[in-house]
Amino acid sequence: MHLALAEVTDPKVDPDRRAWHLAAAAAAPDESVAAELERSADRAQARGGLAAAAAFLQRCVVLTVDSSRRAERAVAAADATLQAGDLDAARRFADIADRDAQSEFQRVRAQLVRSRITFAAGLNQEAPPLLLAAAQRIEPFDMDLARETYLIAWGTAALIAADSDSLTAISEAVKALPPPAGAPHVLDLVLEGYALLVTESRAAAVPVLQRALAALEDLPVREVLKWGWVANGVSAAVWDDRAMRVLVGRVVEGVRAAGALTELPFCLTSLGIAIAWTGDFTAASSIVAEIEDVCAATGVPIAPHVELRLNALRGREAEAEALIAATIEEAGAGGQLMGVTVAQWAAAVLYNGLGRYRQALAAAQVCTRMGELWVSVWALPELVEAAVRAGEDDIARAALEDLADATQPSGTDWALGVLARSRALLSDGPSAREFHREAIERLGRTELRPELARAHLLYGEWLRRSRQRVEAREQLRTAYEMFTAIGMEAFAERAHRELLATGESVRKHAVEAASGEELTPQERQIALLVREGLSNPEIGTRLFLSPRTVEWHLRKVFAKLSITSRRQLRDVLPPSEHVLTPE
Description:
The chain is mainly alpha-helical. The protein has helices spanning 2-8, 15-25, 31-63, 67-84, 87-100, 104-122, 127-138, 143-161, 164-175, 186-199, 202-216, 221-231, 233-237, 241-258, 264-278, 281-298, 305-314, 317-333, 337-354, 357-368, 375-378, 380-389, 393-407, 413-425, 429-444, 449-465, 469-486, 489-501, 521-531, 536-543, 547-561, 569-572.
């Protein structure tokens, strides 16, 4: 049948369909058919994503006669299959590439794919040294591929190990590389800037990374798919909040459109963190659900960075503490120190919101001691605030010095606004007022609403303690309204207590994320199915969702309806309302 279909398919009009039918009809290896499949793979990816390209390349390997050529094609098949999210199949083709390799270059390329599979499958500390060794072995054969591999190795070390040993070894190896021929490519700039972050200083790295940031706006999709997830950290390293949302969003679009499921959770995590900074918890929550679905499909075990950040900002103590504790235990056991760092950052934010400053201080100190280059810096303002409130001014001043070193080179409103807010905490009189106002002015020019609201809160607290109650009420009222609108419950309660302390009578508002908010259509569907007695897996089957995603939506339903159990849904949903589900 397939042979007949191939014969009636015009090779000029639809060569890819013809090649696929010929491959399906082939009973034995056939080089001519394999070559046609290889030529069709790129077109298949453009039409059907990486999964389609992987299918073409896998069949191409099976039909290849020559072992050396089969090794080359097996590397390509393993790479496409890995990106498409099928780690087991990627291993099989990496094994073929290793078995049939006829040269050192083929063997090292097989090692490279194996190292990337190790990274995706376990996110453990084995991956960075494996990738570093692969990069060093590739250097004599293909310097461009070697530099790309060094960058991926650096990204894995930053994401997994978050320790100075891995990052230092890779960064020192990068500094020893010969300079690129001609004008540096954007990859070269990212690689150089990252290495400088580790081996020299942020002041040395920022100018290079800012040049890289400008070039990343025009990064081709082909390169986005190769190492775009590593470059997502550039905008955060230079404190450019707009670029962090725009460029990371573009990377996510490219990765999602190509079906690069292995890289997608990392890119979505970067985007979710960027969006959470703006206070758009609804959008960030949808990203949490997508990450969970992709990880369930691929088996990529990434820590719940975005969910940790959201829970901390929302300030729901029991829910946040449970996730923080679980992440520290699981990520720590798996060698994902970045996950531990994010969990400690979340704890510092949570406890600062709750006014439990000793606990915030302890968490922030753990976080800032990590050999990680983003979150450990973002935790410094938490450490300053917690230390000041706990009466540990020496700790606060040391943290403020580190924060100044991290923020001043970039010169953005985000960086300098957070620095001014922290400086105000360690200042008195006119200097404190000036720093508070600078923080509000600078952060007001960004879209970072939670940070701006916290600037108003700290200014209001300082004014109250300075017995300037009228001005204090204005700042505290602004903070309270902002926290309430965003859904930051703990910080809203902190602002509410401060307002009461000024003598103002305040009627508490319902936080937007809590009860009273309308259910979305999908949330209503899930609630009605729960009322009918279906379990989360049964609901997931009906609605084509994972059980974890169903559970995530159900938690939102409970919060919006102000209930705590599935049984209570019978009382709060109209009995006449019935669910409509897909056939």
